[in-house]
Amino acid sequence: MFNPLQFQRRRRASEDDESSEDERPGLGKPNSITDEQPLTDVDKQYGIGASLLRQMGYVEGKGLGKAEQGIVAPIETKMRPRGLGIGGIDEKSSDTDSSDDEPMSEVAFESTLPSLYALIEQFEQLGTPVPLKIKEICDNGSETVDIRAALADMLRQLKDVQAKIDLAQHELEQQRRIETASRERRLALQRVLDGKHEMIEDDGDREMAAKMLMAKLEPQVRALMDSWDPTDLDSNVPDRLLDYKDEYSLFESDHDNAYQALVSRLWEKKAGDFFATKWSVWQPNLGIALIEDFQELVSEEAVARVYENVLLPKFRDEIGHWKMGEPGPETWLTDWLNVMDERVVDQVVADIFQKYADWILVGWNIEEQQLPAKRVHLSLWLDLYGDEQTRQKMESSVIKRCVQELRKSKLQNADVVQFVALLRANGVRYDKIDYLLENEAVLSWTDKFYSLSDARDQYHYVFDSLVRLYARLLSCYHFPRLQTYLVLALDHLNFKYQTSLQQLQMTVPPMHRFISQREPSISKLVEATENLSLKPQKKINVTLKQLLDDYCQEHDLFVLPESTLMAGKAMYRVTRNMKSGLLIYLDDDVVWAKTGTDFEPVAFNELEHYVH
After folding, report:
1. How far apart are CA 521 and CA 403, in angstroms?
2. Cα–Cα distance for residue pair 318/313, rounded to 1 Å
3. What angle do CA 512, 517, 523 make, to 5 degrees?
4. Which residues contact 462 (CB under 8 A, 6 or more apart)?
5. What residue ranges carry the coiled-coil annotation (predicted)?
6. Do the beta carbons of residue 586 and residue 548 sit within 8 Å?
7. Rounded to a whole number, what is the largest CA-CA distance in the chain?
8. pLDDT of 39-50, one tens digit each?
9. pTM (2 d.p.)
10. What is the Cα 271 distance to its own chain's centre?
11. Distances from the Cα of 99 to the Cαs of 93, 155, 402, in angstroms?
């Protein structure tokens, strides 16, 4: 009968010799199964085969197989492709309760006590020699447990010591680096003290050196600014500050300039206090010097704040107290115009023009007719900064003042003529004057004309007002608006008197029709004049021949064409009796006359003296 337990492991003769050594370098006898699992009495008797059969489910007297099926139905397993080994294919059974979409982490099971072989190997890796005796007994199974435990404890202690050594070496290396950096930092500080800033190359050292240099310079800068007298134009404070700036210049950057920020802060406070309390606008040279002397030292923002917060309010206050006709901004402000920011200049100049506009409304003596622009220096500011909008503002002030004066009058013809003369003397266009006349006089006059019941009264009224006024004004301009109402009134009179010039249909307009169109607001009236578009008038072309004909007609002379030419020009004869006379021709607006043997130029007023 086959009994698997009868199989025993054969031993080589060399295995019985305890003095033999393992062929592997550094080790004694080979590892035995006893290193992994303690041997039972059955294992010792039958060897490793009995142990393997027991793991496969063999029970003595029942045969092989976990279901007691014997050797008839052996344990089956999947065939693996050659060369893959265990785990090369999926060997899970169909009843495995797991999900493919649930990842499972691998769990490594480690022995609490490493094998003697592993301990020996680790000792040798750490450079610690292991006695040969320990190598020889590394495979003796349970007899080496105590030794392994002791060695494991020693290995653990050795690793702790090695870790402490590594930590100490790391800390020592860090300390060396700190010492090196400290030595370099000390050298950088010494270079700052020695003034050798250009030798500092490290960014961190340069930043530290800049702070140290500022700490050194700040007390000196503050002392200089405290001793600075703004009224002393020969002070050496700006020059000394420039020397300090040169010393700090190696550490300047576009985004960080601590030295400029320090000087700007101190200058802005001291200069601002001086401008506000001790300086007068009548000292322009001193004020400009305070800014220009520090121009290379302070920031543009600091200068702009001094202009905005101190100087501009001071300029405006002086302009507000300025009396027209007395010395004013033309004396103390002109020097500032080339150094101030353009935005500040625009604000100051706007205040000056507003001052002139207010003065025109209340202070201008209209008996002078023409605005004294030169005497009050208005023309100076207009030449410097007068744009179209500014000139329009001055003209609007003139119109407002003239309208105010006209509304105060009794609206007689003389008042209207003076009104027109004032506007023309100050350059107001005729089309604007015509519009103003319509609003201020003609509309009310027309309503007054139609309110009269008697035709004779209407005739005398229109003759004394519109006709006489139009006759006086026609010499300078035709005033189309005024002409329209005059024609309307005359047409009405022709209709009333049934003259040959009457219109076929004529309807009397209702009462107060015209006065309702009048604009009572002076501001809106002036705004309306600004929106008027000038319609260009057709240019009248007058030839020299026409002038010659007019002259001869006034002096009872005749101009007769001749059949001959002179240098390609037409010839004429100026005569009194249609027979004899003066032979002439016209060339380049010049009258050439044959007064003797040759032609020579003559004037128009001399022609009659040559005609007999």
Report:
1. 11
2. 9
3. 135
4. 449, 486, 489, 490, 493
5. 151-178
6. yes
7. 185
8. 566 566 666 677
9. 0.54
10. 29
11. 13, 43, 103
